[in-house]
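Flp pilus-assembly TadE/G-like family protein
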Amino acid sequence: MIRNERGNMTLLTVAATGAMITLFLIVFSFANALLVKGNASSSAEQAGIAATAVIYEAVNDAIDEYDEQALMELELEIDVDPTLTIDLGETKSLRERITDRAEEDSRDRSPAEKSRAALNEVISNELRGGNDELEEIISEYVLAAIPESVQAARALIEANNGSTRDGSITFFRERQQIEVVASSRMESLIFDELIGEEERFVTDEGYGPVVPFIDYINWSPIEQQF
């Protein structure tokens, strides 16, 4: 009788231990899935930031070209009509106006953030005022920068051990942001062999910073698969 009771207790202990281990593995697998999803979300957001940085580089190049063209046109006007009294030293370029605005910004921001905010403010004001030449140049440069922007997003995702499988990048759809969809591969500690390869990839989306001036250029959303 005592031997049977001891045997039953042993079986009960083994069963309880097995149940606890199984429960632990299930909980751990669930937590792991959340971590994988979080990694996908983080990778997508950082990819959006990297892609947006490329767009801003292109916009800065566009500003430089615009300033060069504006200066050439002004010099041509003076050559055609020498009676014009235009002081080129007092005529501020777009770049100088952006720099001045950034220096006036007293908010607690990094120099890069102040410069970007100033760029958006000055450019938006110009475009709202009907500066078609600037709008055309910026649109051209932004469009040309898309392949490099896509590559920057892809590289960032892969560097974070994410995956571009079933991923995509959308340039300025409803928001003034770049939207990135990325995924991460999941492995389970329990019943892993029952999970198909297609089900292992957890996807999530992330967004780059807002680019306000996009509202003022002739832009149609562009979506590309990685």
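thats it. The first strand starts at residue 163 and ends at 171. The chain is about 60% helix and 10% strand. bye
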